[in-house]
């Protein structure tokens, strides 16, 4: 898998998003990761959204992994593991290194005993962070040597790396100023350096808006998962607004939402094709076991 194709991890917060994602993966005969954020769980309800996603995953004709995105709360992680998630992300990247290490190790110990993968982050993905003392994008980047040490000591299964991608659509002038210090959207040389020292799959957060050429270059050098949220939201939002404007007489929510769901699904299909995921469903195993040494 590594270097040949990647799997998009699509965020969902409701029925229409999950429906559109699964439809896209089935059309492309591709494995897919359906992931939730803490905000999505708060919006829809933990049991409700997880139950919905599990039902879609169970009935899907392709492999579906359920993943929890950025989470600081160990108790919530435990609950989601008990509800059947394939993997969880403990995000302690905002903490000093030693504290990040300590919390991540605790989550790994708990999750691995239950056959669940753990993702952690080293460095900080550009986006809704504390920008007070940040002077340039390089200040937040993942250090390759530290990454190797972190992976060795925590025994995580996937590593989220900070290499220049951005969460959401940047509007804060401080974020724009930091982004202006980067030579390219994504530092591919840094990805290469991390790959040389880290053998587990790498994850790129904030992949919406990253140029296609850089997505494929990152795949070649070991990024195995790309988190996608904003691109799907934009596609859904545009189609929804266009439909409402064009058909002001429609009041049936199903007819209002259906074109938006289809637009989201097409956007997801485009990502699956871009990442060479199409046709990879056959024989793919969700959360395959690996040695716990």
| Known CATH architecture | Alpha-Beta Barrel
Helix/strand/pairing category: alpha/beta
SSE order in H/E notation?
EHEHHEHEHEHEHHEHEHH
Spatial ordering of strands, largest sheet = 1-2-3-4-5-6-7-8
Q: How much of the residues is beta strand, in percent?
A: 5-15%
Number of strands: 8
What is the rounded Rg?
19 Å
Uncertain ranges:
128-137, 288-293
Number of domains: 1
The profile of the biggest β sheet is: 8 strands, parallel, barrel
| Overall average pLDDT | 88
**What level of helicity do the residues show?**
40-55%
What is CATH's topology name? TIM Barrel
Instruction: State the separation between the terminal residues, measured CA to CA.
Output: 22 Å
Write down the overall geometry: globular
Give structural notes:
The chain is of the alpha/beta class and 293 residues long. It has a single domain, classed as TIM Barrel (Alpha-Beta Barrel), CATH 3.20.20. The protein contains 11 helices and 8 strands. Helix 10 packs antiparallel against helix 11. The chain is globular. The C terminus is likely disordered.
Summarize the structure.
The protein is of the alpha/beta class. Helix content is 46%, strand content 14%. The chain has a single domain (7-238, 267-274), classed as Aldolase class I (TIM Barrel, Alpha-Beta Barrel), CATH 3.20.20.
Which features does this protein show?
disordered C terminus; single chain; TIM Barrel; 293 residues; 11 helices; eight-stranded parallel barrel; alpha/beta; 46% helix
